[in-house]
Amino acid sequence: MRNIVLLLFAVSISSFISCEDDGPYDDYLVARPILQDAISFKAEAIDVVDPIPIVSSGKIYAYKNYIFVNDVNLGFHVIDNQNPSAPESIAFIKLEGNYDISIKDDKLYADSYGDLVIFDISDINNITLSNRIENAIYNNEVWLANIEYPQADFYEYDDIDYDKDIVIGWEVKTERRRVSDFEERNNCMSCDFAFNTTESGGGSPQPSTGQGGSLARFKIIGDYLYVVDYSDINIFDISNVEDLKILDDVQVGWDIETIYNQGDILFLGGRQGMYIYSIKNPEKPEFISEFRHGTACDPVVVDGDYAYVTLKGGGFCGNTESGLYVIDISNLKNPELKVIYPMEGPNGLGIKDDTLFICDGSAGLKVYDKSDAPNITPINSFQDIVAYDVIPLSSSLLMIGDRVLYQYEYVNSDIRLLSTVEL
């Protein structure tokens, strides 16, 4: 009996030492997702209602006499702009999980939790849902990278079935965890999950196709819709919307954020660089070259032989110093950096003839003459406003700020404020 007691004591001591070898431990906040069945959740995620106040202003899109303003993750506001001096909100299209749209021939294409959703807007007062294609852009695993995370030390979501589940919230509890696990996680924040940041022009839009800003992920060119997710170009043949064809994706890289075109050349903005693709065969974009830079949020617009790229550092965007990069693309296979202009916190940008518009965040809207590119000269600045993205139209400039839509009119070589709408 005495030998058995000694054996049990030895085992207990061994177990205690073993546990200590794994330690030390401390209390940490652990977040786990609250899930809902994706089918029932998505069925409740679409509606068309009367105008409501905006929560978080995102991208803007212009089509005919209407402006569409994204309410990040919630849907988009429809604004009647027949009188640019007095725009009027007329509806809100509830579309949860939405970040972007594109329109052609009165068909509005949008994303919702990675699905491609199509609306008929031929009667703007009676907008109807035409189709919803599940996981056409990305599955719910990529959607998880978009959502707002709670404050926590650990995130546990390995058991999610991304084909069936949607994250609708988080439960946060205090649990004991090894200090070494916490330290390892802090040394690899980007290993745990990807963070989200938030129709480019290239001349006047076709009469049947709308126009977005430089932060767009959707782009319609001819009979094709191109949508960039975080690593791929998704391609859709929309020549027959009743029989829309999903074509093969083209893998680009990681952290792809924006898409812009000049003719049959695509320019993709990502946190690691600018990527150039040919769409001479519109169904199979072909890689030409890339321009690499430090990690930063990176929209791009192009005019002639130059690409204009705003790099925003800090926060989730990365550690690169903020600025405007002017890149010579006369040789598409060998893009060459020409000039860097310092900026405070640039977002979107746009071009109208020889005028370059830059949304410099809390530093406001900045206007430059680029006729001597790659050199640019300041013309004007609009301060004491937050500038997020712009769309240069034929006779006016649209700009979205912090829950405010601004509209400017061109006056000779300058612009002046025409109207503001508190969203």
TrEMBL record:
InterPro entries named in the record: LVIVD
Record Pfam families: LVIVD
Superkingdom, natural source: Bacteria
Protein name per UniProt: LVIVD repeat-containing protein
